[in-house]
Amino acid sequence: MSELPRWEVFKQDGPGKVHQAVGSVHAGDGQHALFTARSVFARRPAAVSLWVARADHIFALTKQELDAGKGLSEGNGGTFYIFGKKTNRRSMTLGDHLGTLEASNPQAALEAARTQYGDDLLVWWLVPDSALVRSTDSAETVESWFAPAKDKTYKQQSSYGVVGQHASAHKKAVRGGDHD
Amino acid sequence: MTQIQNASASAPVLAALPVETPEQLEAFEARIAAGEKIEPGDWMPAEYRRQLIRMISQHAHSEVVGMLPEGEWIRFAPSLKRKLILMAKVQDEAGHGQYLYHAAETLGATREEMVDALLSGKAKYSSIFNYPTHSWADVGMIGWLVDGAAIKNQTMLAGCSYGPYSRAMVRICSEETFHHKQGKEMIVLYAQGTPKQREMAQDALNRWWWPSLMMLGPHDADSPNSGVLSRWGVKLKSNDEVRQEYMNEHVPELLEAGLTIPDSDLHQDEQGNWRHGAIDWTEFWAVVKGERGLNKERLGARQQAHTDGAWVRDALDAYAVRESGATRA
């Protein structure tokens, strides 16, 4: 068989935060991609929403390509979700969702985005609204999709903080016979 | 620039090598020197792409095979708490493999050819996972030593010049710290536990100490791929430098836990660095080549899992065919 299409994943860590590009999964359709994305990218707390879009439906351009005069390929107009990489600082995400705009085609959307969000971004991603599949925002779904991971505090390194501070501090703390 | 992209988009990996000019290379190296990250779409030397695909896919395979030595112990966990922790850790390793395959895919490698290379035995993975796990204490010792060594290496790689690899490493390190700490906690408790528990912890240390030193790679003088990788900002420290960091953190903590490190030449030098005795590299290479250790068993387990999962892939294929048919009709 040939492999399933690749979907880019956008994760929102909490209410009021923006979606961020975290990586990709392979899946047969949008729902499958969302389920897989939850297993791969939401094993820890801090998630309330996931979006996915097929990688080959995203319009992407780096600053280097832009400086060399490269433009985006042709495509339909509509609503575009704009993601951008702002710095070279260490990060586990490519970039943030900067905003959403309407344009008559991808190139026009890029030009509008450059005007609106600054011209010094290092990577641009334009995701057509029609390409996005989203997890449901209802409280029930958020609870059933994301709360279980939140309660599993043993996945957090902070659960073992005392060991990290000093082995001898830990020895004192556990003297008394807790040997599992 | 266009040539590179065409080459990577139309062929599996580098079928046609693009022409590279000294100016392109100079500009590329200047970007790396300035601390910029190279992103998919940017110009890069074909050799940079080739080395990264090799390195990242091997790293991904190591995460995937890394589930096996500890996964065997989930059903023997001594408490529900420890079982939950180990299940979460093994799930994390699966996820780490996914992050890394993703990073390699941004360079033009396909998931399918990488998985095939692992299953056929063509690709390598870290030989540390070809050592057997003998007791429950090995689970703790792997977390403390093997994950501890991996974190040192991966923290360095988190600063590497290729954006997608760097991001995967930052995400992995933040999760891996949990693996390290749960292992350390378990061993510290065992080391002050019953005589039997102390014996298990010491036995695990005796077997994992040297492999954990060797997993950080050959000495700098014998490391064939390091030159170009350090020149282009992928490896920011040498194998021996990372090994020294690992020693300096772990030796005092193991000693404080009351354990004995199985190296009669172990000592601290004038600079305060902990120095190990001579490493038996013949064992390392024998395990790498599969002459010793569980290479056959590990690959067999992966192949079996792949075969057992065939019905899932078939079902997904059938669903995709039905859906596309429905769309056409």
Q: Topology of this structure?
A:
The complex is a heterodimer of chains A (180) and B (329).
Chain A: E1 6-12, E2 19-26, H1 30-41, E3 49-54, E4 59-62, H2 63-67, E5 78-85, E6 96-103, H3 106-117, E7 123-128, E8 132-134, H4 139-151, H5 161-165, H6 167-174
Antiparallel strand pairs in A: 1-2, 1-3, 3-8, 4-7, 5-6, 5-7
Chain B: H1 2-10, H2 22-33, H3 46-65, H4 67-71, H5 80-105, H6 111-119, H7 136-157, H8 163-191, H9 195-214, H10 226-231, H11 239-256, E1 267-268, E2 274-275, H12 281-288, H13 295-308, H14 310-328
Antiparallel strand pairs in B: 1-2
Helix pairs in contact in B: 3-5, 5-8, 7-8, 7-9, 7-11
Number of strands of chain A: 8
Class by SSE composition of chain A: alpha+beta
Distance N terminus to C terminus of chain B? 41 Å
Order of helices and strands of chain A: EEHEEHEEHEEHHH
Principal-axis shape of chain B equals: globular
The CATH homologous superfamily of chain B is termed Ferritin, core subunit, four-helix bundle
C-alpha Rg of chain A, in Å?
Answer: 21 Å
Largest interface: A-B, 52 and 63 residues
Strand content of chain B: under 5%
For this structure, what is the CATH class of chain B? Mainly Alpha
Based on the structure, what is the oligomeric state of the protein chains? heterodimer
Rg of chain B to the nearest angstrom? Answer: 22 Å
How are the strands of the biggest sheet of chain B laid out side by side?
Answer: 1-2
Specify the biggest β-sheet of chain B.
2 strands, antiparallel
Number of strands of chain B: 2
Helix content of chain B: 55-70%
CATH level-3 fold name of chain B = Ferritin
Number of domains of chain A: 1
Q: Any idea how many domains of chain B?
A: 1
Strand order of the largest sheet of chain A: 2-1-3-8
